[in-house]
């Protein structure tokens, strides 16, 4: 492969956005070098109205649904939760009122505003089909979309993207994972990008060309390299006009272990706002495994919820007009024990909550077939009992919002889910 | 298979990557080269800045006492909650200094050791029994867990390794056990009487012992077993002032327990030790450990036969680790090509340092490399440890970071190293003709070095 002339590429450098036409030439050449190994979907011309967008947030570690959305009106709640209980709205440190017996944790102020603005659906007593208590297997089920752990090397969201009709595709990558590696939910046949902040400078374009040559006989590496260059380009444009976050700020974020990075949210919004950008973004949020001293209205979990809430607010602000076409779904792998454990925390449980948020959501309601918290009503006498299969929500969003064909949903996306009907009425008509 | 192919596999797949000259040394008898590393005591890390965990913890105790926050009742309660922000910062700085010294010593040893198979095994076990420095107490103790519990037992039995790890303060703090109180223990009853507060179990350590350290998630245990083991483990704690393991009878849940159908009489501390010794030789543990070893050294999806061979060696020897390692070496599948595994960022950086014989000096810069490439030392973020499948590491973002890192190394050292001459010494029979040509025709010494470090055969093993 010969070098196209006059290209200056510095990967990871936001200033490279000014050179993107040249970068495109390089990428075109790179596609050829990859020996056609890439599945390049048909490019539609950027239209005037942007296609629907979906943001999937995985809250890893097991979010305590009874803290995030306290059922303060349940007669057994305060007794089970003791020092962890969130009080009724209007009391000191009390929750923010929703409807029925439910409130939002006082840290979730943006979500509360969104509920009032009819842009938030709260789903309670929801769970994946997994019924054991291992984080790692539970996340695997949550992401693979199959009923058993480790039954697939691909994720339901990638399989759903792969099933989209080609005219529904807006750009080269259908999705982007905001993280250092692509999580299972986004792995599979459909091309996806991954992006995470970096500090190193990149090699010059001649070296990149030679590396591409070096990978000519290696389909995996050549595809990864093309994906990486494309993602850096998109990220550069998303950040253009803004300088990279100051190192000091990044360090502070890391030290505090925030639930989700504001910088990552901004870049995600940048990706999604482009007409030909990815339609789906996946974000990871860690640290929800609150075994000890989780606190109630204040404390470590309250701080983490506040950071998540702030991140979602930033996402809405940054998405601008695209928010109208956006659905955000935040889920966790399982909930936590109904009862406070011996160390001011909660252990691994079963059902939890999910948040469906966005301009395209028909919000302002809590969907919960409330099982109750009396001991005989708890799953195995200890956990909130699941009454809603998370796949009913996922199927509805994929079908009604992204336009994934029903047949694909039943056959390839959630193959074990024939008895799980999509939940109706989640999205604006 | 030719001895040159076997040598490249022994040094790069089982070891941490060739240093110049190492392939030649291994090529006489590659299997013997590996087996010899299992002879003799495992080496200790020699570095005057390293301290034992007891010393670290008693210094931390004194720091907290000076800050006025250490009172009666033990140090563990206060571990995560020092009195003031200033005291917290002091403690963080103290732990941070220890962490940097530990992580640097670990890298230096991995880069220079001539028993790199043994070192890979050490890293494997540290990851099997993972703790993560995002918990403050672990920041100062993760390195000592590896030095005090893993290294001395890497050539011993699995039972000794397991017990040493579970008794170590890093693991006890990481998985909350010092806070776990038997609900019917004297301590819990006293708390209820005096303060009207309930104290009780924390299942964290018990669950991860069963799920991750021994039986594996499909190993045949139930929620009742988790609770039984958690009850047996109550009282396993740390004496904050002396910084050592301590059994606290007052916190221990009285009574006999049933785990996996077997009854354990209440013998205080010995109750949980007996349970752990049985778990250590359980058939599910043998299979779980064998699967993880095979996945780490052989392939993402090793054959059932390979796993069975290693599991049988484990069972028949009652967890004698050198016997298990010999079964791994004897597995024909472990010697096959094409290269089945993508290096983890840590193995990638270490193999780069070994191959180029880079000095391990600048602490900050050095440890930053691991972080930038996605695998900060001792920070897997969860008790499951770092993931171990190629797909967990071979993402586009991650590849670009390796290219950038290799580019930085090339810029710095391109004039001092001859990549074309080094390549056969590092990659041996794995070196492809395309790579050899690319190195010969590179525009500069710097570029050649970068290309060598990002070549497919250097990214894999």
Structure description:
The complex is a heterodimer of chains A (about 425) and B (about 450). Chain A has about 425 residues and is α/β, with parallel strands linked by helices. Chain A contains 13 helices and eleven strands. Chain A has helices at about 20-35, 65-70, 75-80, 110-115, 135-145, 155-160, 205-215, 220-240, 245-255, 260-275, 300-320, 390-400, 405-415, and strands at about 55-60, 95, 105, 120-125, 175-180, 190-195, 280-285, 325-330, 350-355, 365, 390. In chain A, strands 1, 4, 5, 6, 7, 8, 9, 10 and 11 form a nine-stranded mixed sheet that branches. In chain A, strands 2-3 form a two-stranded antiparallel ribbon. Chain A is globular and about 65 Å long. With about 450 residues, chain B is mainly alpha-helical. The two termini of chain B are about 15 Å apart. The longest helix of chain B has 28 residues, at about 85-110. Helices cover about 55% and strands about 5% of the residues of chain B. In chain B, strand 1 and strand 2 (about 245) form a beta hairpin. Classes of the chains: A alpha/beta (about 425), B mainly alpha (about 450).
Entry keywords:
heterodimer, A: about 425 residues, two-stranded antiparallel sheet, 13 helices, B: mainly alpha, 24 helices, 4 strands
Helix-strand blueprint:
The complex is a heterodimer of chains A (429) and B (461).
Chain A lengths: L19 H14 L19 E7 L5 H4 L8 H5 L14 E2 L5 E2 L4 H8 L3 E8 L7 H10 L11 H7 L12 E4 L13 E4 L9 H10 L4 H21 L7 H10 L5 H12 L6 E6 L14 H20 L6 E7 L19 E6 L7 E3 L20 E2 H13 L3 H8 L16
Parallel strand pairs in A: 1-7, 1-8, 4-10, 4-11, 5-6, 5-7
Antiparallel strand pairs in A: 2-3, 4-9, 8-9
Chain B lengths: L2 H12 L7 H5 L3 H7 L16 H14 L18 H28 L3 H13 L7 H4 L2 H9 L7 H10 L1 H6 L11 H10 L8 H10 L9 H11 L2 E4 L4 E4 L9 E3 L2 E3 L4 H12 L2 H15 L6 H13 L4 H9 L15 H12 L6 H10 L23 H18 L5 H9 L5 H8 L4 H10 L1 H4 L2
Antiparallel strand pairs in B: 1-2, 3-4
């Amino acid at each position: 492969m010969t070098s196209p002339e006059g290209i200056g590429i510095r990967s990871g450098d936001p200033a490279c956005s000014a050179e993107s036409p040249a970068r495109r030439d390089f990428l075109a050449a790179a596609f050829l070098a990859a020996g056609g190994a890439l599945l390049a979907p048909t490019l539609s011309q950027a239209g005037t109205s942007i296609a629907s967008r979906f943001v999937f947030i995985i809250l890893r570690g097991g979010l305590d649904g009874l803290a995030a959305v306290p059922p303060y009106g349940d007669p057994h709640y305060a007794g089970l939760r003791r020092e962890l209980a969130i009080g009724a709205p209007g009391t000191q440190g009390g929750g923010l009122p929703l409807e029925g017996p439910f409130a939002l944790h006082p840290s979730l102020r943006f979500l509360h505003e969104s509920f009032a603005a009819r842009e938030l659906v709260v789903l309670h007593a929801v769970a994946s089909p997994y019924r054991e208590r291992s984080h790692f297997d539970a996340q695997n089920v949550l992401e693979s979309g199959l009923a058993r752990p480790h039954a697939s090397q691909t994720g339901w969201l990638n399989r759903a993207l792969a099933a989209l009709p080609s005219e529904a595709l807006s750009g080269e990558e259908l999705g982007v994972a905001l993280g250092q590696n692509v999580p299972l939910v986004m792995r599979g046949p459909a091309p996806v990008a991954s992006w995470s902040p970096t500090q190193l400078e990149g090699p010059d374009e001649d070296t990149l060309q030679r590396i591409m040559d070096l990978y000519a006989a290696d389909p995996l590496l050549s595809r990864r390299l093309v994906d990486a260059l494309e993602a850096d380009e998109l990220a550069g444009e998303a950040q253009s006009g803004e300088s990279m976050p100051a190192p000091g700020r990044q360090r502070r974020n890391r030290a505090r272990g925030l639930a989700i990075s504001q910088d990552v949210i901004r870049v995600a919004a940048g990706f999604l706002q482009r007409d030909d950008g990815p339609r789906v973004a996946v974000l990871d949020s860690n640290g929800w495994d609150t075994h000890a001293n989780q606190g109630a209205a204040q404390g470590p979990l309250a701080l983490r919820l506040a950071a998540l809430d702030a991140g979602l607010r930033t996402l809405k602000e940054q998405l601008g007009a695209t928010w109208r076409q956006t659905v955000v779904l935040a889920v966790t792998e399982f909930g936590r024990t109904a009862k406070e454990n011996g160390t001011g925390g909660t252990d691994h449980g079963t059902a939890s909550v999910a948040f469906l948020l966005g301009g395209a959501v028909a919000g302002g309601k809590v969907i919960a077939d409330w099982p109750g918290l009396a001991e005989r009503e708890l799953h195995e006498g200890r956990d909130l009992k699941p009454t809603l299969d998370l796949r009913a929500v996922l199927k509805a969003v994929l079908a009604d919002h992204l336009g994934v064909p029903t047949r694909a949903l039943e056959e390839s996306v959630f193959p074990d889910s024939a008895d799980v009907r999509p939940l109706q009425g989640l999205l604006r008509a | 298979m030719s001895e040159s192919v076997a040598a490249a596999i022994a040094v790069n797949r089982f070891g941490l990557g060739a240093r110049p000259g190492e392939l030649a040394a291994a090529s006489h008898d590659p299997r013997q080269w590996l087996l010899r590393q299992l002879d003799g005591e495992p080496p200790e890390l020699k570095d005057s800045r390293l301290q034992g965990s007891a010393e670290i913890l008693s210094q931390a105790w004194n720091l907290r006492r000076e800050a006025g926050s250490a009172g009666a009742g033990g140090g563990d309660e206060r571990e995560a909650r020092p009195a003031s922000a200033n005291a917290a910062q002091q403690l963080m700085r103290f732990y941070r200094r220890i962490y940097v010294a530990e992580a640097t010593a670990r890298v230096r040893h991995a880069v220079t050791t001539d028993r790199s198979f043994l070192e890979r095994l050490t890293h494997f076990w540290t990851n099997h029994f993972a703790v993560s420095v995002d918990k403050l107490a672990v920041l100062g103790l993760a390195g000592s867990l590896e030095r005090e519990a893993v290294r001395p037992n890497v050539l011993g039995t699995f039972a000794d390794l397991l017990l040493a790890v579970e008794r170590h303060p890093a693991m006890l703090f990481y998985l909350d056990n010092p806070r776990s109180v038997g609900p019917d223990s004297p301590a819990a009853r006293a708390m209820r009487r005096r303060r009207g507060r309930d104290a009780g179990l924390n299942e964290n350590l018990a669950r991860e012992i069963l799920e991750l350290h021994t039986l594996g998630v499909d190993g045949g245990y139930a929620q009742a077993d988790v609770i039984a083991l958690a009850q047996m483990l109550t009282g396993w704690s740390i004496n904050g002032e002396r910084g050592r393991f301590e059994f606290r009878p007052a916190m221990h849940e009285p009574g006999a327990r049933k785990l996996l159908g077997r009854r354990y009489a209440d013998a205080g501390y010995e109750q949980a030790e007996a349970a752990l010794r049985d778990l250590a030789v359980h058939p599910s543990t043998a299979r779980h450990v064998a699967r993880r070893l095979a996945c780490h050294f052989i392939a993402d999806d090793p054959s059932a036969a390979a796993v069975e061979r290693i599991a049988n060696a484990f069972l028949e020897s009652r967890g004698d680790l050198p016997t298990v390692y010999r079964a791994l070496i004897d597995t024909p599948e472990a010697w096959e090509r094409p290269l089945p595994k993508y290096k983890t960022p840590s193995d990638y950086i270490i193999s780069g340092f070994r191959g180029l014989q880079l000095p391990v000096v600048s602490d900050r810069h050095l440890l930053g490399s691991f972080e930038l490439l996605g695998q900060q030392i001792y920070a897997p973020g969860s008790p499951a440890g770092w993931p171990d499948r190629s797909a967990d590491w071979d993402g586009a973002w991650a590849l670009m970071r390796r290219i950038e890192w290799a580019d930085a190394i090339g810029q710095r050292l391109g004039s001092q190293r001859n990549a074309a001459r080094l390549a056969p010494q590092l990659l041996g029979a794995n070196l492809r003709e395309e790579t050899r040509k690319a190195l010969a025709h590179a525009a500069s010494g710097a570029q050649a070095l970068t290309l060598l470090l990002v070549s497919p055969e250097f990214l894999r093993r």
